[in-house]
Amino acid sequence: MKEQKSYFILVLILGALSTISPFSVDMYLPAFPAIADSLSTSISNVQLSLTSYLIGIAIGQLFYGPLLDKFGRKKPLYIGLWIYVVTSVGCSFTSSVESLILMRFMQAVGGCVGMVAAQALVRDIFPVNKIAQAFALLTLVIAVSPMIAPTLGGYITAHFHWHWLFIILSIICTLIIFACKWQLPDGADPDPSVSLRPKAVTKKYLEVLHNKQYLTFILVGGIAGAAPFAYIAGSSDVFINIYGLTVTEYGWLFAFLSIAMIGATQLNHVLLNHFSNRTIVITALCYQLVIGFIMILGVWTNSFNVYFLIGMMFIFLTGHGLSVPNSTAISLAPFSKDAGSAAAMMGFMRMAIGGIVSALVSVFHNGTAIPMVFLMASCILIAGLVLLYYYYSTGELKRFRNIKQD
């Protein structure tokens, strides 16, 4: 019983670390119109603060990978989290969209350490054959964030002021820091042989990327995982300004759609007892692609009402809860020594792609839902083509159903 309680606490803390950045994104989405009005700017400019945050996550993770390998997991973790706390307070005092974009970038650079450290610690603590289950549990914890964050953000924005969103984020992160100090294991020992010189760091990342399985599945997971970023970047404008939902209604809608990912992660536990990681990833991509094209057709022909669009998006987003934990497990399976660098590069790729996709939503903004749903479907299509090429080039195209779990 005590062991089960310790396991629960460990997963909860690792999930909280992984949730810092998603929570920081989801919580302020309902406030986009209010921020735009307050800072006398447009919705598309406010969307760029999301893009800058995703870019900050991508770049920051590249630095934390070698630091986590050289100094161990805890020291870089604490430094990054305290940077997040300070810059969150800074975000609350911004008076222009330009300063908000900059502060969000710095906030992301600090907070992204939680994502890298959590993934590396999973690889440190759990055996290889349990990694997928561990990531599925983390994904479950992370999936709770969209249920809480936008709803809370909607009420704060409606009854107080959007500046309070960032004050609350700083308080939450401070609590996570103390939880890590008291309950989180140290993980892998520091490796003094790891060099922090740019040439050596670059060489290490290139060595990690040389693994074909790793490279393929971080691309598949990154590109497919960017589809929700298109949804995140465009949904507040689509559902509030186009379909006429209130800020609080949008928060509840976001929470409802997050149930799709939560249910999928629970289903993933069952599916892993019968199917390989790779089979689940392929199946998820196939049905997401079909739903994606249905959404494009429905929005293009104006044949969807808001409820039908919500239903299609719910089905679409279940694929995220299936493809992400399994592609992550397959990616990290070959690594034991360089898990920190491997996790950092994977995080960089995912956030960089997500940042590009969210920026494209802003670039192609035309007052309709077309940019959002088109980019969502396009991400799945490209991810599927990458995976198809991998199986074709390795001669496994006809044998993937028989591949056992990594």
UniProtKB/TrEMBL annotation:
Gene3D superfamilies: Multidrug resistance protein D (1.20.1720.10). The chain crosses the membrane at residues 46-65, 77-95, 101-122, 134-156, 162-180, 214-232, 252-272, 279-300, 306-324, 345-364, 370-392. The keyword Cytoplasm does not apply. Keywords: Cell membrane, Membrane, Transmembrane, Transmembrane helix, Transport. It is a multi-pass membrane protein. GO terms for cellular component: plasma membrane. The keyword Transport applies. It is found in: Cell membrane. GO terms for biological process: xenobiotic detoxification by transmembrane export across the plasma membrane. Its main location: membrane. InterPro entries: Efflux_drug-R_Bcr/CmlA, MFS, MFS_dom, MFS_Efflux_Transporters, MFS_trans_sf. Residues 10-396 form the Major facilitator superfamily (MFS) profile domain. PROSITE patterns: MFS. GO terms for molecular function: xenobiotic transmembrane transporter activity. Belongs to the major facilitator superfamily. Bcr/CmlA family. This is Multidrug resistance transporter, Bcr/CflA family. It comes from Cyclobacterium amurskyense.
